[in-house]
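task queued by scheduler; priority normal; single chain, no ligands, no partner chains; default sampling; output format set to structure tokens
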Amino acid sequence: MKDHLNVRVAVIKTGGKQYRVTEGERLSVEKLPKAVGEDVVFPEVLVLQEDEKVIMGSPHVAGATVQAKVLEQSRARKLLIFKKRRRKNYRRKNGHRQPFTVIEINQIKIA
């Protein structure tokens, strides 16, 4: 059974999105300019929770950071974009693969 004491939960902002993270969690975020195996620090912590204590940032929690490790750099499945105008002989087919980074949250720090 997992021990629920000192469980830290944070809401971080990266790539224009917000993510709710806990220590040991893996998630895919917008591409980060880091190599596989490198550490990355997210200084934009919006909300921090430790047990029942919640700290709301305005806009960020002062002195709080989230440390993570880059596990993988990859691209998503291809999305096909098809445009057509009927009776005008206009057809355009295009594809897109969004790059992303898989990270693992190592530590949520409070200064």
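post-processing summary
- The first strand starts at residue 8 and ends at 14.
- The beta strands are 8-14, 17-22, 26-30, 39-42, 45-50, 53-56, 64-75, 79-85, 90-96, 99-110.
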